[in-house]
Each structure stands twice: as C-alpha cells, then as structure tokens.
Amino acid sequence: MKKDEIRRRVKARKTLLSDDEKERASERAFMLLENSAAFMLADRILMYHSLPDELPTRSFIAKWASRKRFYLPRVNGVNLDILPYDEQSLTLGSFHIEEPTGNDMASIDDIELVVVPAVAFDRRGNRVGRGKGYYDRLLGSTRATKVGMGFDFQLLDEEIESEPHDVALDIVITENNHIVIRHRRR
Question: How many Cβ atoms sit within 10 Å of the Cβ of residue 148?
Fold first, then answer.
C-alpha cells in the first residue's frame, strides 16, 4: 500500500476516536513506554507535543518532568531544533503545535531516547509520517534509541515500503503492543 493511501485510511480511522478513547489508549501506551528498559535507562528524552489526532503526551510529560530531562522539537525551516522542555516557555508554533521558545538548543548527540509520532508503523520499524520529512532528517543523525508511539490501528501488519531517506525505529509501542525491532547492522 502506498504512503498516501495509508495516510488517508489512518486519518479516516482517527476521526472515529473519542477524547476518552484517546486518553485511555495514551495511558496504556505510555505505561508500556515507562516500563521499558529504554525509558528507564534514558535521562535525556526528546518527546513531542501531540496534535489532536495523536496519542496525548502532555500528562505523561508532566508526570515525569521532575525526574527526566525532556526536550521538545521546534520547527526551523525544514529541520527540527531541539530545546529543553519548560512548561512556562511554550508557544504555539508551526502546525499549531506547542513548541519551546528561546535559544538554549541542545544537540541531538545529547539525546538518549527519541519518542516520535507517526501516521502508521509496521513491525519492522518502518513508519509513515505526515510527509514533510522532519523526523527522518533528525533521526538520521542520531544513535539514540528511536521509539514510535501510536494507536493499535496505526500498527500495520503489511510492510511499509521505505525509501533511502527513511529511518527505521528501534521500538514501536501502541496501547496493546511493545515491539522491539532487531535491525541488521551494516
């Protein structure tokens, strides 16, 4: 199935979710994340502030913000800057996502765990994003563990075709799945 078709199907399915269903799925998925070795061992974590059709992240960030160092992305042209999370210095940025303000940028080399959203995932760690390539450009430059988070229906049984610039994930988590992907080393 082509990426545009996947985007269309998943978008249609997301419109059927109630806010309560989103919250319940988020609680279960993020419980799987917080119980994972990858999360327990990481101190510096790049998260995302969720869009209305993604697993809600705000309560998870608030729960752990005093014990982990969270960072959020900020759109800068075609790339993402990484800034420390500070609830007091967020502003509505590109694509109507709350982003950190300021100039205290971090290096992707300092991040130990990257938690990313996507439109869809497969069981090999391939993902379909929204089509702009922001995360692929960022993920291609880090050795951090890469975790994709989504709803159960975003995890596809069929393999997603990948392109040379696509970066596979190490872990995919949904409300009922925790899949660790074993990549072949090149």
Answer: 28
pTM exceeding the 0.85 threshold for the entire prediction: yes
Strand arrangement of the beta sheet that strand 155-156 belongs to: 127-128, 120-122, 155-156
Neighbours of 92 (CB within 10 A): 9
Which stretches of the chain are assigned E, i.e. beta strand? 44-46, 69-76, 79-84, 90-92, 98-100, 113-116, 120-122, 127-128, 145-149, 155-156, 171-174, 177-180
Q: 97-135, pLDDT tens digit by residue?
A: 888 888 889 999 999 999 999 899 999 999 988 767 778
Pair 138, 79: CB distance under 8 Å: yes
| Tokens 């269309």 found at | 8
CA geometry: angle 178, 180, 183, nearest 5 deg:
155
The answer to whether the beta carbons of residues 156 and 6 sit under 8 Å apart is: yes
CA 129 to chain centre: 10
